[in-house]
């Protein structure tokens, strides 16, 4: 009897120890909830979707990086490059790489050869969504094993922005692409970051594991699991139930206010704000008529949209370049909300009974609710907007095929006006063209100013050129900037990411080698 009691006690103690040990082990695993069923293609040079950026930022480094938690160019610091120099004319940049950096899954040391390969790949349209960012590149060379030399056709204001840990600047490993091929690489990405790709199951999860050879040190977390939960309600319930440690929150004021009031939770409204812009394809009737485009602009109510989205979590757009960027025209001549004027312009354009427009749109909840609000506003002016909903990755594919009259694109970019203007409003970036990126409107009225600003050494003159470009684009009504939505995330207060979170250019808090649970 005594023996049986002792045995039961030992078994109970073993069970309790096992549970405690399991709980402790779980503290080295981080679980994140993303608002999508799919992250998109797992290739940093091809993926511009919000969920993909957040997922892949832990896998890759750039030659330089933004200091974690910051988004301003003034906080750029070394990453794979220990140091760099620029020639007096800004056309030749030399980067000195760290030695001994290892590619994931035994693909060898990262050297200048990998950096040259990566940048050339990022500059090639067939392998990069961001190829136009590298239009000014004349050559990329490796003078020796640990030196990268970039020669530009003309100086550009955002060189460090296109070699940092963001978009095409994320460095990949040459041997991995050559051995696996581009298609296989897009399913099993190889980088040099603190976490390595482990597994991806569409509509379920993506998994990363610690890179113990990381040059900044062995990560505290052994594993990060990104659960793909497109439903705001389901994602929120999982967070409340303790199944998630970090959450891409529902993008509205009510949900954010509730998270702020929740004990044990840090609610974050972070920059950069993604600006929602309504791009009008000016090659498709009736949008080839400027009076119709002006009518659409007058029909939209920025104040109403901000009130709908939330005063604390969004702000009204001020120009076709987001507020706070270097070179933003803060007082751009945006057309004011005026439903009567919209109806009058439609009548003058030959459409007294209104018009019907078609748009392909993502099912991503935050973006869809915005577009439904836009749809309701347009209806008051006699403009019917027919929405074809598709999954987020499909949305990105189809809008780049020039299939939609109206495109709602919500984006943030490296915060210099050149990047936004070049990607969305230069004719070189027109979708369907050999160098197409995200110019959905086929706008070309400001090409001269955008190009001139890129090579203008005088900062005041450069900003003046960017301002003039924005005036021309707004006057032509190539696109209608509406709202800037801050990044809304929530994390458990037991999670210490290792830095102060002010913003995240990759649209989700970065997990560092130093990130850990504190309790």
Strand content: 15-25%
How much helix, percentage-wise, in residues? 25-40%
Question: What is the radius of gyration computed over CA atoms, rounded to a whole number of angstroms?
Answer: 24 Å
Runs in which pLDDT lies below 50 for 5 or more consecutive residues are 1-25
Outline the structure in words.
The protein has helices at 2-26, 50-56, 112-122, 174-180, 182-185, 232-240, 253-260, 290-299, 302-309, 339-348, 365-379, 392-399, 417-425, 447-454, 459-476, and strands spanning 29-34, 64-66, 76-78, 81-86, 92-97, 137-144, 147-152, 195-201, 205-210, 223-228, 246-248, 265-280, 314-316, 355-362, 383-390, 406-411, 479-492, 495-496, 516-517. The strands form five sheets. Strands 1, 8, 9, 10, 11, 12, 13, 16 and 17 form a nine-stranded mixed sheet that branches. A four-stranded antiparallel sheet has the order 4-5-7-6, covered by helices on one side. The chain is of the alpha+beta class.
Give the topology.
Elements: H1 2-26, E1 29-34, H2 50-56, E2 64-66, E3 76-78, E4 81-86, E5 92-97, H3 112-122, E6 137-144, E7 147-152, H4 174-180, H5 182-185, E8 195-201, E9 205-210, E10 223-228, H6 232-240, E11 246-248, H7 253-260, E12 265-280, H8 290-299, H9 302-309, E13 314-316, H10 339-348, E14 355-362, H11 365-379, E15 383-390, H12 392-399, E16 406-411, H13 417-425, H14 447-454, H15 459-476, E17 479-492, E18 495-496, E19 516-517
Parallel strand pairs: 1-10, 1-11, 14-15
Antiparallel strand pairs: 2-3, 4-5, 5-7, 6-7, 8-9, 9-10, 11-17, 12-16, 12-17, 13-17, 18-19
Helix pairs in contact: 8-10, 13-14, 13-15, 14-15
